Amino acid sequence: MAKLHTESGLQAACHTWFHNSLPQYRGLGFMIHNDGAKHGIQAAQDKARGLVAGLPDWCLMVPCQASHFLPHGWLHGLFVEFKTATGRRSAIQQKRHDQLRGQGYRVELVQGLAHFQELITAYLARA
Q1: Angle at CA 122, nearest 5°, toward 113 and 84?
Q2: Where do the domains of the chain lie?
Q3: Residues 42-54: pLDDT tens digits?
Q4: Which residues neighbour 4 within 8 Å (Cβ) at sequence distance 6 or greater?
Q5: Most CB atoms within 10 A, among 21, 50, 62, 101?
Q6: In terms of pLDDT, which residue wins out, 42 or 69?
Q7: DSSP-based three-state secondary structure for 3
Q8: What architecture (CATH level 2) is domain 7-124?
Q9: DSSP string for residues in 30-66
């Protein structure tokens, strides 16, 4: 069982639930490898290949009908940022999340498995 008190454990538990509960969407929900834990040559190589600071942890590439307040009526996909109960978004994360929202994506902060399950279920109900 994943350790839900860490961001990586929460992400693993959420993705496992998604993968096992919604097989029709397998491959459309995935992690964004952006942990920033590397140094030196590896960090430079990652940046050269397109690593972008502040991107969310997980993405669901399924469009859905948006709420009535969005002019185009559809969201292109869903991005999820996982945080522990005490975790907070950094300034660069908030900037990237705002950019994604401006391009028609939904971005949500998730701090628990139940919240993720509710979010995905509600989102896919509009797909």
Answers
A1: 25
A2: 7-124
A3: 888 888 888 899 9
A4: 10, 13, 112, 113
A5: 62
A6: 42
A7: coil
A8: 3-Layer(aba) Sandwich (3.40)
A9: EE--------HHHHHHHHHTT--TT--SEEE---EEP
